[in-house]
Every structure is written in structure tokens, then in C-alpha cells.
Amino acid sequence: MSFFRNNLFIVTNNHRLRVIVQQKTHPQEIPVIDVGPLRDHTPSDTRAAAVSQLGQTLETVGFAYLSGHGIPAELVDGLRETAIRFHDLPEITKNGIRINTAHRGFIPYSSSTLKTSTVDNVSKPNLSDSLMIMHELSEMELRERAGQPLQGRNQWPADVPELREMALRYMTELSRLGRDITIALAEALGLLPTWFLPHFDCPTLFLRLLHYPEQERDSQHGIGAAPHTDYGFITILAQDDSGGLEVRSKDGTWIAAPPIPDTFVMNVGDILSRWSNGRFASTPHRVINRSGRRRFSQPFFFDPSMQSVIECPSSLLHAGDTPLHPPVCWGDYLMERLNRNYTYRQADGK
């Protein structure tokens, strides 16, 4: 185990060295954090060190690689292989489960444009298509939440029947990891470990199975995902070996975030940054598929309940300070962004 871990860090350092050379000697790097200790909520020096490292990393970089997460590699790889089978279906078949008003289903190529990006003036659509899966609701929950935003049925492809079970298992495992991280984030902020948890009684979950078609290797226009920050709390990403994810450093240069075996890439979203009064950085990032082949990734977004009010805890403010942002309802914040960024939600198609 230690030999593998040493090799992992050697690989990581090689990636960092290559990134620094490509980015003309930028000292910032994306650390690998062993989150294994966070799975045990019993206080210990090991856990305290992991919490501290996570907090410091999210304050300075906003991104981290997560190792020791306990998610089986066969589940991560199996979901990717199943997603590839879905994306290989004929377009007419995929359009049979085209995205619905509950934001579940197939999102066709070039049908989302990040108009709400605060880091770029985005006018061109993302060069990707995807299958959007959200939290699964029971029949009782569907009746109780009828008419509420984003509360509906997932759409599952009949031609890839195994995708449903695998995706739901994946979301269960990633939700467990998200909860462990949420507890650690509260501790890193000096809050009670359970401080965030009431806001996740009915979490808003997104699993997006993304496909970036092959682009010209030297293309200057093949932006798979335009520069943006994520809307929500945290994102936990599994990516294939194509590369293409880039993170913007504080001096404006772009740092590659290449895949590292048996890790996830995690980043802070806007809502967590607001909650922490800007202490945790919601860092801009983008995807450019320069691999010369298709790219597949599976971001999982772990977000609060739709009714949750996001307000900076008073204990994070020094005497005389005021919050950087007013309170906001997560559901309202989210819907404003979805309504502007997705073509299917706009009656005029703009």
C-alpha cells in the first residue's frame, strides 16, 4: 500500500513539474489530500491534520485531488464504460429522453451556454453533450413535491438498462463522501462538525455524464466548457485519461489538472464560497479537449436542499465586519442560473 502511495505522489509531482514548466514557473499546484481519515469521525491527530490540509488547500487553491476516498475503482470505471455505451447510441434514441423541465435527461451537443459566468463573457455554447441525472425520488416524494422546481423523475435509457442501478449506486457512494467532506469543512471553519448537515436533509444532487467530442489538437476554438465557477457547494469529479481540465490560478495563468489514478478532483462552488464569506475559493476552471479523441467525465455536484438559506455564520466575522453577500435561498440562486444557461429552459431559444 505504501509503495503504491509513494508511486502516486511521484506521479503527482511529475504532473506538477510538467505543469509548472508549461505555465512558465508558477508555484501554485493542486495538492493530493488523503481523505481516508475523514471517513472516521472520531477525533484524532490524523483526522485533524487532514481537516487542516483540506481547509488550507480550499482557501488558497479551491481545488484538490482526493485519494483514500474508499470508492471502488470498478464502480468509477464501470459507470464511465456504461456512459460511453449511452453516448454511442444513435442521436434519435438519445433524444427520446431529451432533458425535461425537472432538469433530467439528455442534453444535446451545444445546447448549454455559460451566460452566468462571472469570469468570462461567454457567447458560444459548450462543445459537449451529456446525460443529466439528479436525486432519485420515490413515488411518495414525487407526490409531495409535485410542482416544485427540479423535483421530478429521472429519465433512463431503455437501451442501456444497467445504467440506472450503476448511477444510483455511484450517487449513493459519492453522497457519503460528500457528507464526510461537509463535516470536515465545518471543522476547518471552526464550526461545529454538524453545522452544515441540516442544510443537506434533502440534498440537491446532480450526476452529469459528459461527453466531449474529438476536436482538432491545435484548435483555438474548441472550448469544451468555457471558463466558469460552479454554482453550488462542492463538485467531485472523475475524469478519463484524456486530460483537458484547467484551473485558473490567482495570477490568471491556467494550470492543468491532469487525471491521477484512483483520485477524484474536488472543487469549491459559489455557494460554499458565500457561506464561508469568501474564505474558501470558488476557482474558475475550463475544459479544452486537446487529446485528439473523445473525452468523458462524470462530475457529481453535492448541493444543499432547495429551501436552504445560505448566510455567512456570524462566528466567521471579526468585530465590525459584515458579510460579503446577503442571504440567498439556494433554490432561487440555482434556478436563476439554469434558466439563463440552458436553451431548453428559454422559450425564445436564446
TrEMBL record:
GO terms for molecular function: 2-oxoglutarate oxygenase/decarboxylase (ethylene-forming) activity; metal ion binding. It is an enzyme of class 1 (oxidoreductase). It comes from the Bacteria. The keyword Manganese does not apply. GO terms for biological process: ethylene biosynthetic process. Residues 203-304 form the Fe2OG dioxygenase domain. The keyword Acyltransferase does not apply. Pfam families: 2OG-FeII_Oxy, DIOX_N. Its cofactor is Fe(2+). It catalyses: L-arginine + 2-oxoglutarate + O2 = guanidine + L-glutamate 5-semialdehyde + succinate + CO2; 2-oxoglutarate + O2 + 2 H(+) = ethene + 3 CO2 + H2O. Pathway: Alkene biosynthesis; ethylene biosynthesis via 2-oxoglutarate. Keywords: Ethylene biosynthesis, Iron, Metal-binding, Oxidoreductase. Its EC number is 1.13.12.19, 1.14.20.7. Belongs to the iron/ascorbate-dependent oxidoreductase family. This is 2-oxoglutarate-dependent ethylene/succinate-forming enzyme. It comes from Komagataeibacter rhaeticus.
